[in-house]
Each structure stands twice: as C-alpha cells, then as structure tokens.
C-alpha cells in the first residue's frame, strides 16, 4: 500500500521530468544556447506546483541529472520565460528560478547571474504596472474626490486587504529575494544593488497591498544591515534617494508613514556606528526640501516628512538644519515658502528636547522678515504661521522687537493682496494682548479694512477692530469703531450683519448697562466725574450724524429679533435721571433711548417722561434769551426734546388716556405758535399724528382728527406767511430793501420784526411736515405764496425789477425763508404730481444758479426723491443734475455722489451718456471721503454690475478728461469735468483715473484697449485727425503713450493663478483643479501670443510713423514715445531685431535705451547712485545713438516679419501712402456690451 502511495506521489514529478527531458532534447541537451526557448505555461505551472512543496527544489535538482539536463540550462530557460511580456508566466518563472537557485544542493555563487536577476526585477515592475492600470474586481475603488480623499485617507488600502493571485506571486518573489540577499553578496555588483533599490522603491509606490510594502522594506533593511553588500554609507545614500519620492507623496498613504518609520527605526541606529550613514541622514531633510512640491497640499505633506526626519537631530545637528532653513528663507520663492512652513514646524518642537533654544529666536526673526516678502503668497503664509506660534512670540517679544513687528503688521493690513490683508488682520486680532498701545494710523487701517471689497477681509477686520475696542476704550478707539463697524449692518453678507449686531449688543449696550449706576458725588459734580469718560464718548459717538442711521438699523434689527432687553431702557433712564443735577443728560442718551423704547415700551416709566417733558420745556424757553452760547445750548436742548418726543410716540400705547390727551393738546399748542426750533417741528407733528391714530377708537376717526388739525395748521401757516409777505411788500414800497433789524425805524409806521420772519420760516417748515404726515390736506392757499418766494430769486435783473416793483428777492432778504420754501415746495411736489410737472424745471434751474450751498444740497435731495417718484420727468435732466458732482461745496458733492450712486444701483438712472464720464472725476476729488466712496463704487459695485463699462468708455474718457474739442461728439458742458494741463498734478490725476479703469478690465479687454489706443489716438495723430499742435491734443497723445507703457496695461505671460492666492488654489491632482489650471494656462498663452502679434502687426508700424512725424516737428513728445517703446519691448529684447526689421535705426536707439535703463536700475539698487539716477540716465539718447539721423518714412520700410505671415510682394513699383497703410491695420475690437455705453 505504501509503495502504491509513493508511486502516485511520484507521478507529477515523473511527468515534470518527462516534459523537461523533452525540452532538453529540443534545445540540445546541456549544450549552451544563445537564445533558449521559454517554458510553456503548463510546464511553468507544473514546475511551480512542484517547487512549492517542502522538498520540491531539492528533489528536482537531484533528479535533473537523470534526464541529462543541467541546472544551469534549466535556469537559462527560466530566465527567458521571466523576460516574457505575460505577467503570470513571468512571475511563475521568477518564483521557480529563485526557488531552484536557493536549493540546498544548488551552487548558488556560481549560478547567480546579475542579468537574470535584473530580468526578475523588470518582471516585478511590469506586473505591478499592469496591476495598477487594471486592478482586479475586488480591488476597484471609486474615483477619488476631494471629500473622499479627506474623510478616508487610507480607504485605498483598507478596501484591498485580500491580495489577488498575482499579488501573492509578487509577494513570493520578494520573499525569495530577501532569502537570496542573506546568502549572496552584492559588493561586487554595485549596479545590480542600485537597480534593486530603485526597483524596490518603484514597487512600493505602485503596490496596493501593505504586505508588499513590508517585504520591500525588509529587503532594504537587509541591504543596509547585512555585511557584504558594499559600503553602508553608499547603500544608505542610494536607499534614501530612492525612497525620497515616497516620503513626498501628496496623500495620506501608509507607504509614506511606513517609509519614514523605516528610516527612523532601521537606518538611524546605523548612523551612530557609520559616519557615511550619519552624513546621509543629515543630508536627507535638505534633499527632501529641494525636491518638495510647490502646491499647498503636497507641500504640507513634504514639510511633515522633513520634520519627522529632523526630530532625530539634536544639538549641533539641529542647529545646522535650522541654519539651512533660515538660508532657504532667503532663496527662491518656492524655497522661501517651504522655509516658512518648516520654521512653523521647528518651533513646535518640544523646548525640553534641547537646552539651547537660541535658534528659536532666529527662526522667529526669519518668519517676521518673510512677512515683508516680495511674493504675496509668502507674506500671507508667514503671517498665518506667526499667528499659530504667537505664544512663542509673546515670550520673546524683547528679542524680536515689538516696534518693528507692530509697524510690519500695520503695513500688511493695507497690503494690495487680499490673502495678506486677511492674514494680517487675523494676526492682529490675536496680537492685541502683546501690543501695548494702538496708534491712530493702525486704527485708520483697521477702519478702512472694514469696507474692503472682499467679504473675508471685512469679517477679519470686524473681529480685529472689535478686539481693539475690548482692550482699549479711549476716545480714538471708540470713534474709529463707531465709524467702521455699525455701517456693516447694511452689508450684503448676512453673516457680517449678524456679527455686527452681536458686537453692538456686547460692546455698546452691555457696556452702557454696566455703567448704569453713576458714581456718588456732590451737587457740583460734572458729567466727566459722574460717568466714565468712555461712556460719555460712546454715547456721543452713537448720536453722530454719520453713525446714527446705522445705529438705528441695528436697534431695529435687534428689536425685531427680540434681543433688546428692558434693562437697556432702564439703564438709559437711570443715566438721564442721574444727570438731572447737571441740567442736561449726556449727549446721545436721549437719542438711544428713543430708538430702544420702540421695542421695550413697558420699560419706560410715564412719570419719568412727564417730569423730563416739563424740565426740558422750561429749560428750553429760558435758554432762548441767552446770547450766542445760549443758542448753542438751545440746539442741544431741542435735540433732546426731539428724542423725548420720539420716545413718547413709541410708548404712546402704554400711556394713560388723560395724560395722552393733555400731551396731544400741549403738542398742538406748541406747533401753532410757530416759535420752535426747526429740528423740533417735525418731531412734534409726527408725535401728534401718532397719538391721534393710536388713541382713536377707529382708523377713520384717527385719520379725521389728523386731517382736521393739519388743515388748521396749514391755514394758520398761510396767514403767518401772508402777513410777513405783506410787511416785506410794504417796506419795499417805502424804499427799504434791506432786512429790518431789531432797531429798525419806528417813526410811527408799522415795521416788521425778526420774530415775524422767524415765525414765517417755522410756519413754512411746518407746512412741509404736515404734508408728509397728511398728503390729503388742501394746499391751494399756500402754494401761491411759496411760488412768490421761490421765484423772487430770479428778479435780480434791472428789467425784471421794474416789472415787479412790489417783489423782493428773498434769497437776499430772508435766505432761511427762501431755502425752507424750496424744501416745502419739494415736499408738496412729492404728493402732488400736477404740481411736480410744473415746478421740476424750476428746481433744476435753481440747482444750477443758486449761490446758497444749503439750498443746492436740499434741492439735490429733492431731485433724488423726484427721480424715484417721477423717473420719466427727471431722466432728461440727468446731465444737468450731474454737474453737482463738481459743486464747489464738498457737502454738496458728496451728497450728490451718494444719491446718484444709489439711484444707479437701483436702475433709476442708467450708466449711459455723460453720467459715467462725470463720475470719474470723483476718483481724484480733493475730499478723501469722496475718493474713498468712488474707489468702492468703481472697484466693487460697478465692476459687478457693468463689467464692460470701463472698456467701452475708456477712449472717450481720455478725450473728455483732457478737454479735447476736436471730436464732433464732444459736449461743451464736459469742460467742467476736464482736468486740463501738462503739469504733473493734472497728469497724475488723469493717470490715477486711467489706472482705476484698467484694473476693472479682463485680460482680453486690456488687449482690445491697447489696440484701440493705437488705432484711435496714435494713428489719428499720424493721419492728422488729432491735432498735436494743440495743447489738449498733445495731452491726449501723451496720456495714450503713458497708458500703453504702464504696468496695469501689461498682460502677464501667466494668468493662470495669482501668487497671493497660491495656497487657496484647488488641488492639482483633483479633476476640477487640473481642468481649471489647464484652461487658465491655455487662455494665458493665447492672450500673450495675440498681444505679441498685435504689437508687431499693429502697434510697431504706427509707432514708427508717429516717431517720424514727431521728429519732423521737433515735438517734446518724442522722448515719451521712446519711453513707451522701451517699456513695451523690454520683454522682447532678444527679438527686437526681428520686430523692428523695418527700422534699423530705431533698433539701435531702443537697445541703447534699454541697456542704459538696466544699468541705471542696477546701480540704483546697489545704492551707488542718487534717488533720481534712473531718470537721469534714461533721458533722451537720440543724440548718442543716431547722430541726428532721421527715421526713414514708413513708405521706405519693409513690413516686419511675423510668424505665419506670407509676403506676397515680389517688388514695388512705387511708394505706398502711409495713410492707406494705417487704415489697413486700423481694426477696432468689438465686444458685446450690456448697454452701459
């Protein structure tokens, strides 16, 4: 039975031997063959199955002699099979080859062939490559997305725990190679060792399976640890160089972690024994730094790997690496960016790891220095990293120098790149505890950042300036905070609005509540002693005219959300009550109480209101008898009474019936006397209306009451005004044309007193307030009187005075009455369209002719309201209304700009005609507030609403700003908006406007604008269409040349990304990031090529002809033209010979200019020359270069060589005309507009 089993067991071996014997007979037995045939797939499978048994290799080797087949011959056959392209047979042959080679009876040293070993390594690489391109079904994974790669970084390896048959064969080959390396020495085969190491790293990078990576690392460990494989230092260098790409993998891969662990666990111990290994380890982080990628995410993994290796350093080794990193911080941009991240990682090392921590100060100084880097992305990254190690900064503030640090942060907060500004603001928010004091300049920078066009910048600035307010409560901080933060309540971003509300609640209302209980002082206490100075500054700033509208919106929003607590109103009442002894509450307290009381009516005590109504009323009447100072106090008391009336209106529903009726009667009585301050009238009327409507039983009853007393007030006002006009008429008849004073003649005749005129002014103002609250009131009696007053201003001509002898010019006699009459007439027009049609032309006329700034301002406000109510009527007057943008009064100009901007945003006014051109002048207004508003309008609102407007109107803007009248379409009215002159101030203003427009254009629009400048201005000068003998014509031509030469007009070769946002780009390995980057790169290359082609084909011929024309007239603009050409061609210095082939003399001049400019720039950079060295060296060099040789005419020149241009000229019969040449190349670029122009 045992014999039968043995016979069955030997049957496969016998069959295998038979097949091998057949193979031997075919190949000539043991005779060597130059190209032995490979084994068949079935034979390889049988051989692999037999060799997989325990004694299979030994048995087969011992039986080979019986079939007359040597082991070396079999190995040569196997090597041929290994080199086949089929994956599985190749791996089977490799396993069989190594199994036979490692057989105990095999002469390993004599049979080992480096060439066959290389075949095995190539088979492994080929099999893994095929496996990577077409993984098995159980290893397929979904395409990696951004979210998937972040949430499951090791999913690729976790989903493939079950190796396939091919993977098992690969693993078997690697294990056999490990056994082989323990029995042979590669010391004599350095090339084989290097190839083995490179193959192992490639296998690890391509493998899906963790077991394969472990086997590869085991092979590398044997190479380093086992003797006989060559110099350890050299082997380590080869291993680390091959593993470097794995350490720099851009994903969270177990392979990367395993490789770093292998280096620290297996190679580092040998560094203590071998100097070569130690040098290799010390050089590894530097090698990785030089190979680190530039993009953000891969760079982060590279930094992590470098720091993991650097953690093994100590003492001098660490100091050497720190010194290397600091040197990197002064290298190329890519290395500087890497150094910034490495410094952050080094500073995170434990302080106990090294006794000498002086290198930390060096790192911090290098990091602070990088905050002023020339590359915006590096500046932003350095600022962000400082924020993360700010605790380290605070500990070493003296060594670093806080003054330098604070100045740096302030400059970065106003950086021209958004990422830098945001990083600086975030750093400043955290650095408030470190900065001792905050100067005014830093506050202004923070305030400006709150109105930044970018949402992220506004958020960061909002938090930064609020952190300053928390820590410092002086007057400057409070003032700047109130000017910057409350306006954000009207921001388009909801999150910013909510943050603004929360900060106002925390920093204003809660702070007021904290100081609700005043300090106990005597009766002679002043307001400064009774309340903290910060509280007084805060309340005063809240009531400021520019801030109050935004505070009102904030209170309204908080009230609707029920975030205003009754304790706020109670605290304000306590503050006002405590200041009764001072006879006046802190400025702003009453105003804030009026806003809060609308949403906390139950918290307001009627006794408190009644007491202060009597107190303020009596005090107000007493103060009116005072002098000038008393009049100022009267205004303050009137303001408080207005706020008190608003408070009463807000809580009228909570008032008892009898006190409410008494209060309404008192209000009506005060209104009928027409002796109040104008600021009180409107509040009295609105409060009376509110009391009547809320206390009436029905709506009809309330409306009837309002109409009744409104009609009575209008009648009384008509009588008062008629009485005053009668007095004026009577006085005029008597020959007294001056305004009567209090000491007027009283010779038995009736005279008018100042009280009569002031009563008439209040009466007219009251009529306007009544019209707004009751539009149905009859105004037929008051309108003729108002007409008499507002038309009296035009009766200044001698003939008109004769025709209207009984009329007086109220603009001179009673300016206040004249102004209020126009305002009241405007309110009447708002509620009566028939009256509006009659009087709107008069409003426009008065806006242009009036000398009263207050009247022009009021009419401008009325015209804005008319534009909303009667858009069609006003549309024809828009060109005349926009003249107010050049009003001599700053208040009128700013009011006009704000009102028209709002109308333009709401599409009541269109960006067409002269509107856009006249708005340009606001960019260079003498008022900083107006220029700030204009910058925001053009850079944010207009860029999004009408992106093509700047491009479409650019050429026309050049003519209008220079006041050039040569165009048939020029409007004489535009002379008012011209900035004429060749002086530096005028030119700088115009260039500021041009640059602001160029910044709004896309690259393709810049290219088209350049072509239009050449065709419509430069070529027009050549053709004589632009008169360059005229001063304005010269200014137009000079502006065009300076625009073409400015850096904003230049189209960069790479428009794919902005270095300021280099860390915010999409990952390059993501589909979206790769597609976007490729599209932008393609677009940038196309635009750059088109720009160069246009320069050669369109611009250069025009420049050549223009230069000839200017030289013939000895024009001073020749130097400007040469500067423009130098700027345009400095990037094509090596191609000037080809570009200017038509004018050899111009080639010499430009090359000379460019060389001199570069030499002067280098000398200036080294500090060897003075401040104006570049300008001095770059003056006109025509005399040196050309020796007064004139540029030949265009007709004598050949066309420049352009790639793709095929000349069809075989000769010339005669000269061509320059005009025809220019007309042939003058092509206007057209873009579809949105009807902005």
UniProtKB/TrEMBL annotation:
<dbReference type="GO" id="GO:0005634">
    <property type="term" value="C:nucleus"/>
</dbReference>
<feature type="region of interest" description="Disordered">
    <location>
        <begin position="734"/>
        <end position="753"/>
    </location>
</feature>
<dbReference type="GO" id="GO:0000779">
    <property type="term" value="C:condensed chromosome, centromeric region"/>
</dbReference>
<dbReference type="InterPro" id="IPR026971">
    <property type="entry name" value="CND1/NCAPD3"/>
</dbReference>
<dbReference type="Pfam" id="PF12717">
    <property type="entry name" value="Cnd1"/>
</dbReference>
<dbReference type="GO" id="GO:0010032">
    <property type="term" value="P:meiotic chromosome condensation"/>
</dbReference>
<dbReference type="GO" id="GO:0051301">
    <property type="term" value="P:cell division"/>
</dbReference>
<dbReference type="InterPro" id="IPR016024">
    <property type="entry name" value="ARM-type_fold"/>
</dbReference>
<dbReference type="InterPro" id="IPR011989">
    <property type="entry name" value="ARM-like"/>
</dbReference>
<keyword id="KW-0226">DNA condensation</keyword>
<keyword id="KW-0132">Cell division</keyword>
<dbReference type="GO" id="GO:0007076">
    <property type="term" value="P:mitotic chromosome condensation"/>
</dbReference>
<keyword id="KW-0498">Mitosis</keyword>
<keyword id="KW-0175">Coiled coil</keyword>
<dbReference type="InterPro" id="IPR032682">
    <property type="entry name" value="Cnd1_C"/>
</dbReference>
<feature type="region of interest" description="Disordered">
    <location>
        <begin position="1205"/>
        <end position="1237"/>
    </location>
</feature>
<protein>
    <submittedName>
        <fullName>Condensin-2 complex subunit D3</fullName>
    </submittedName>
</protein>
<feature type="domain" description="TOG">
    <location>
        <begin position="305"/>
        <end position="564"/>
    </location>
</feature>
<feature type="coiled-coil region">
    <location>
        <begin position="1122"/>
        <end position="1149"/>
    </location>
</feature>
<feature type="region of interest" description="Disordered">
    <location>
        <begin position="130"/>
        <end position="163"/>
    </location>
</feature>
<dbReference type="GO" id="GO:0000796">
    <property type="term" value="C:condensin complex"/>
</dbReference>
<dbReference type="InterPro" id="IPR034085">
    <property type="entry name" value="TOG"/>
</dbReference>
<dbReference type="GO" id="GO:0042393">
    <property type="term" value="F:histone binding"/>
</dbReference>
<keyword id="KW-0131">Cell cycle</keyword>
<keyword id="KW-0539">Nucleus</keyword>
